[in-house]
Amino acid sequence: MKRACSLSTTKNHSLTCALHPAFKKKYMRMNKITPLILLLLLVLVVSSCKFSKLLKSTDNEKKYAAAVKLYEEKNYSRAQQLFDQLSTAMKATDKAERIFYYYAYSYYYMKEYTMASYYFKRYSNNFPNLPTAEECNFMSAYCNYLNSPEYSLDQTSTKDAIRDLQLFINVYPKSTRVNECNDLIDKLRAKLELKAFRIAKMYYRMDDYLAAITSLNSILKDYPDTQRKEEILFLIFKSNNKFAQESIESKKKERLLKAIASYNDLATLYPQSQYLDEAKSLKTKSQKELDLQVSSKNK
Which pLDDT score, from 0 to 100, does residue 50 have? Predict the structure, then answer.
């Protein structure tokens, strides 16, 4: 069996290696790649040095031209650094509007939506009479929409987005973006509804029936067009029914009546409900118990 490499020791104990042919070929390829990598590193270093000098420069016109060029090349990180300096240095010039515009969009393209929303709003406040003010007002709200997290997390950004999108509709009722705003609001409201529904179900699973009833009724009030109405009415009935069953005797009759009333709401609105068989069985038991309550009081 051939050895891939052989070792021989010289007087100063250096090692020499007879390379396997396949390894030699790989080593030669690496040698060819190394100069290319070095060249790329050199270009990066030179570019970094030039940009560092540009940041320290007092030539704002040169900075502005470079910032726009970097922005157009989609190098938003570097463009943003220059626009950040220029937003103060050229605040009183005719280029201020473009600087703020590019600055907001650089945050947007870097997916820093909180900052983007802030600067889009600032642009529309600073330049309210320009046609781009409408666009930036929308973008401010849209960034909040993009910043809205999944339903299980804090929904402050979601509520901010709904507020800003609705404000946009109020300010620009004839805008071509109104339909898009309404669609975005519907998606955000659906997320808030889902969160509220999951919380209500959690209360039910924890046997906190009064909290479940309150939460479920709030959903019907806040989201009257909910697609979950049938299930919500069923859960309201089950919660009322279980709440009544666990009540003290002095409260049981009143709560059994509420349970039966909530069953009637479900049966009236959804006579073919998938939940009706289970609901009817529970309602029959509650009705029997209510009848016993009434008869015992009449004796």
Answer: 79
